[in-house]
Structures are given as structure tokens and as C-alpha cells.
User: Fold Aminotransferase class III-fold pyridoxal phosphate-dependent enzyme from Albidovulum sediminis.
Amino acid sequence: MSRIAQRNLSKSNAQFQRAVKRLPLGVSSTFRYWGDDRTIYVHHGKGGRTWDIDGNCYVDYRLGYGPAILGYADERVDAAARKGMEVGGVFALSTEKELAVADRIASMVPAAELVRFSNSGTEAVMAALRLARAHTGRESYLLVEGGYHGLFDAAMWMSNMDEWDLGSNTDPELVPYGKGIPQTVKKLAHITPMNDFQRLEDIFSKHGDKLAAMLIEPIQGNCCSIMAQPEYVKLARELCTKYGVMLIIDEVKSGFRVGKGGIQGIMGVTPDITTFAKAVANGYPISVVAGREEVMRTFRYGGASHGGTYTAHSVSLAAAEETLRILDETPALETLAAYGERLKAGISKILDARKIVHSYTGHPSMFGLFFAETPPDNYRDWKTSDYSFYDRMAYHLHDLGVICEPDSREPWFMCEAHGLDETCLSDTLKAVETAVDLTLEHFEEDAKRA
Ligand code: PMP
Assistant:
């Protein structure tokens, strides 16, 4: 590894040493901790790039896990947000802009007949599940393996794929994401592998009349962008209708990114309830729970509770209005998807030249890169790919000025600014070529030692 100079992270490392005395792991979200000597602290972001406090510049494909759909510090959105500041923040009262933004959402997403705002993805999905429970009078719910729906207890259950034996006939164990999640919640949660049509039918015939909701990310934004087959989502729709279950399509990551009407628009499936967050306001905190009028009217006195001190904050609303206008009225989404296609083609050229088998999942605006011949169809298949190659490559990419998630289960996110700055592509591909060679060297050295 010696032929590449490591980044200078001395300021970030010093900051970490100070921060860890006051902030657990030195950060405000556990996933931002990348090791005592590799946790970076941001100075600022602009367009498709981020600069750390040591002055290292990165082409950024995490984009805060998706929000910066146009790019960091977008001048159009920030100007609108500044105007929103003059309004005064929050009042525990409503403003006219709520309707303007809700109208825009309804015109872009047919399922969004009625709209409520929240602050984060977690809050929106939590509200969606509560709404489903209130509307159906049922409590249990169905999750899909590889999906992620936020930090509230009901959503914090996953199939333990790390411990699962690929060759076994058993299902992976349903486990909580870490400690502090009450076991009692587990009784209400069911989980099924994506794209397994028979299992879905079986689970509905066994439990359908007790389910309040089925939650699905048809493009798994937290699991390599693995995609549901449209027919699978259509089957989910049919079964939900048959058994009186609310279909919740969680588009916190895919919404206003893969298309104006989200993945539900592309697949032609109408959920009862849907959620959006990340791309809605280019990074300003706002989220959306929306859906069928009859269901949404359950938000009322004596019905399902919904609210929050900071909902529909004037800054976030103003930013949302401008971001959605841009996404709706300009070719921004085409620009960033075309960039994603060019990036994939460039990466493939590098990998093909080295005969490295690979494939992609998802949508060009948020794609997963796999070291396997065919992309996974569900989370269990991810085990068949060489994710250790990915993880090593990601490590080198950070040193070489490209930020992607260190874990292969997080897709790469594109923004409009990537597509408008030619150097993003050339800088990225130069780094990918070197990172791939370093990774190959690393595995060759390991093989020799073995
Ligand atoms: N749903 C999905 C599909 C998500 O990707 C996320 C966050 N990654 C959430 C819900 C939770 O959103 P937040 O982090 O804003 O609470």
C-alpha cells in the first residue's frame, strides 16, 4: 500500500480526540464514525464535492445518504431558504406555503392525495405505521428483508444476514438493530425475503387478517439498491387490498430521485400510504407522509395523533418548494441519472480491463456495485457477492478523494451538480482505477501470505 500517500487527516484526527470526550464516538450518528484515525470532519460541501477540515477534497457519492439531490449549498435552494428564515421559523400554527408544497407533491405523486409534513424519515414512517394501525385497528406489520425504515422501535428489526449460513435451509434470524429495542415489539413484526412470490402469498394467507401494514422499499436504499420486481410489488398491492392491509411504500431515499413520481410511478403501483424525506428539500430537514384521502383523514382529533413542534418549519418548507420546483420543471433528474450511467460505464471499463466480474443494481441515480456476475435479487443473494473486495476498494477510494459508503450495502448517490461538473467524473474514474489496482495488490499479498 506504500505507493499511495495517505491523506493527511491530522486535523480530523485531533478533532476526533477532542470530540470523543464530549460526543459518543466523537460524532452525532454512529455511522459517521469510521475509526479513530479515519473519522473525517467536514469543513464544507459545494456541488458534488465535500472538503474536510484538513483541506482534502472528495467527490461525494454519499451526499448525506441522499438528500443533496441538486448538490451541496445549491444557490437556488439556499436563497429560498433564506427567505423562509424571514418568515420566523415555527409558530405552532400553519402557513400558506404548506398547501403550495402539498399541491406540488400531489401533482408529482398521484398516491399523495393528502399530505402531512414531518421532520425526518423516521418520523414520517412512524406516522405512516401509526396511521395504518389506526385505520385498520390492527397492530402487526410485515417488513421485507433488506429494508430500513428508520430508528423507531417497530422498524428496528432485521434479518441477521451476517450470521446467516448461505447454504442452510433455515431463514435468517429476526434480530433487533442493536440493544435497547424491547423484545415485546418483535411479536408484532413479520419479515419476508424480497421477490419471493410464494412466501409473500403464504405469509398473507397465514397472517393477512392481522396485519395493519406491509412496509416496502421497492428499491432498497439501505441494501445495495436491490430492486423489487414490479410484479412483486403488484402482488403486494393485490394481497394488501384483498386482506385490508395498508401498503406503505417507503420512498424516503428513492422519492424525488429515481423519477418525479418515485419508484411507485415507475412501477405503476399505488400505495395506500407513502413516505418521502431525503431529496424533498435538498438537505433541509423535512419529510412527508402522504396517501389516500380516506386513510389520511384518520389524522384527526380522536383518530391517529400526528404533529411535532418543528413540523413545516418555514425554512424547510421554502427549501422544499424550490427543490421540488426544480425537480419538477427542469431536467435535473435526467442530468443526474445520465451522470450515473456514465459513471457506471466508466467503472465497468476499468473493471472489465482487469477481468473483474461485476454488476450493478438499482437506478442510475442510486446504484449498487457488486462483485458478482448477476446482481442480487434480494438481501440473501448479497452474500454471494465478493463484498470484501468492495469494502477494501472503498477504503482506498476515501484516501484517493472519493467518498462512498465503506459498506457495500449502501448505494452510490448522484446529484445534479455531479452531472454539471465534468471534473467529477474524470477525478472519480482516476481514483477508481488506482483503488481497484491497490485492492488487487492487497488480495494478492494476502493470498501469498496464506
Ligand atoms: N426510510 C428509509 C427508506 C430510509 O432510507 C431512512 C434513512 N436512511 C429512513 C426511513 C429514516 O430516515 P431518517 O434517517 O431521516 O430518520
User: Anything to note?
Assistant: DSSP finds 15 helices and 18 strands in the chain. Residues 375 and 381 are 8 Å apart (CA to CA).
